[in-house]
Design a protein that fits this description.
alpha/beta, 6 helices, Aspartate Aminotransferase, domain 2, single chain, two-stranded antiparallel sheet
């Protein structure tokens, strides 16, 4: 190694693998003979389409994502997902949340803008220093989903056993643990993760959503961009996506 590297283990943007950074640097001025940097090329070009398709294929292979799940690359990071989950999944207007720290609290506050939120378990009594027992949650029949933040970076807790959702859809914010350990995707209805923790530059989230949760009948107040179906129907290319983040994440997936 010719220079010193700072080892950054922070909860925000964190380290990427050095071989990936070197490969990105080598392609910066001319990506594979295209004469352009990826940041300069059209998202509608065949070159970028291949970058996007390879990124999705490698992530599917890496996680063993079943065929009835869509992989979406959505701008905006976690803060956007707090709203999108509620906007898209609150068909009956009821979401159940397990309150385990700062990030689940933010998700709860956002979801309350769009429907009824039931906190079915909480560790607030001990300053979010543990994961509450979720083996027998009081989940109402009309609940649309059960939401967890599977790893709370600020409070330092993580799940070792997933909640018994009584047959309801399990939604998980996996931002800070995404791709850090094997994951049985079929146990979830929706997984999302901000990519800056483990796999790429900030400004994008990966959403893995079961196809039956994509809806045509969203409330009229939901912006077109905030519909998961919009992104699923257009292979995450409805608008100009975060091309650079998709490219960098694809490199990490392949690595």
């Amino acid at each position: 190694m010719k220079y010193g590297r700072t080892y950054n283990f922070s909860a925000g943007p964190a380290m990427m693998p050095e071989p990936v950074l070197e490969e990105i640097a080598a392609e910066m001025m001319n990506y594979r003979g295209s004469g352009m940097c990826v940041m300069e090329m059209s998202h509608r070009s065949k070159v970028f389409q291949q970058i996007r398709d390879e990124a999705e294929a490698d992530l599917r292979k890496l996680m063993g994502i079943p065929g009835n799940y869509k992989v979406l690359f959505i701008q905006g990071g976690g803060t956007v997902q707090f709203a999108m989950v509620a906007m898209n999944l609150m068909k009956n207007g009821v979401g159940c949340y397990v309150e385990t720290g700062a990030w689940s609290k933010k998700a709860i506050a956002e979801a309350k803008k769009y429907g009824e939120v039931k906190i079915v378990a909480s560790s607030a009594d001990k300053n979010f220093s543990y994961i509450p027992d979720c083996s027998n949650l009081d989940i109402p029949e009309n609940a649309d989903y059960v939401y967890i933040c599977e790893n709370e970076t600020i409070n330092g807790t993580t799940y070792f056993n997933l909640p018994d959702t009584k047959g309801k859809v399990l939604v998980s914010d996996q931002s800070s643990m995404f791709l850090s350990r094997p994951c049985d995707v079929s146990r979830y209805g929706l997984i999302w993760g901000g990519v800056q923790k483990n796999v790429g530059p900030a400004g994008m989230a990966v959403v893995i959503i079961r196809e039956d949760l994509l809806r045509d009948d969203l409330p009229k107040f939901v912006p077109t961009y905030m519909s998961y179906k919009t992104h699923a129907d257009n292979d995450s290319l409805y608008n100009t996506p975060n091309c650079w983040a998709i490219y960098c994440c694809g490199k990490v997936f392949k690595y």
